[in-house]
Amino acid sequence: MSTFIENSSTLETMFNIEIPKVKLIFLGDSGVGKTSIINRFVHNVFIDKLDSTLGAQYSSKIIEYPNFNVALQFDIWDTAGQEKFKSVTKFFYRDALIIILVYDITRESSFDEIKNFWLNQIQIFGEKDAIVCLCGAKNDLITIEQIKEEDARKFAKENQIYFRLTSSFNNEGIDSMFEFLGKIYLKKNNLVKNKNSFSLSTKKKKIKKKKKCC
Ligand SMILES: Nc1nc2c(ncn2[C@@H]2O[C@H](COP(=O)(O)OP(=O)(O)OP(=O)(O)O)[C@@H](O)[C@H]2O)c(=O)[nH]1
Ligand SMILES: [Mg+2]
Question: At residue 171, what are phi and psi to the nearest 5 degrees?
Fold first, then answer.
């Protein structure tokens, strides 16, 4: 179980702790649903007719992992999928240790682009030890899917990347995708703390207790 914390920036000063941060980038063709996933994760909203992202956009959110006594801040970069921005996107790969590659399950061409373009780009510009996840978006539209889950899963396995299905519309698979990738990042970088260390939750509880007795 993990908890999600909005308004992350003041937590470190409030509780005098250092929260590990990871840069995460979203890649994929225009209209596949990258911004919608981020909007759902960060603000829990779905906007039906979104404008295409221009350049790139930053947002952040912290997930707390009470079982690991640690929290992790995701510094999220949403990139623009439009053709004219593709050459700019490469500047965002630097230090991105989590990469989410998004395709639209109802649009085969968006999956072909992952195979023929985005994976190559990651190999050229991406950090060598980045955690990469293939994400099939718009899973609420499964009745008109063009890419079968088993084919996408097989492709991910062959390329040694993780795989997740999401729907921003239904709020399905999004929190769990971030939670899952964050957990892999924490373990890979030995950031999981032992049970006796002083966690954010412990600090919050102590502060609450103090308030009661004063
Ligand atoms: N049914 C359904 N529609 C979705 C979903 N996610 C996004 N959409 C629709 O797809 C459109 C495009 O989504 P965006 O999130 O803007 O796509 P994007 O990948 O950020 O596109 P660019 O910014 O152009 O790169 C949205 O306006 C929504 O109408 C989803 O989970 N289900
Ligand atoms: Mg966008």
Answer: 55, 60
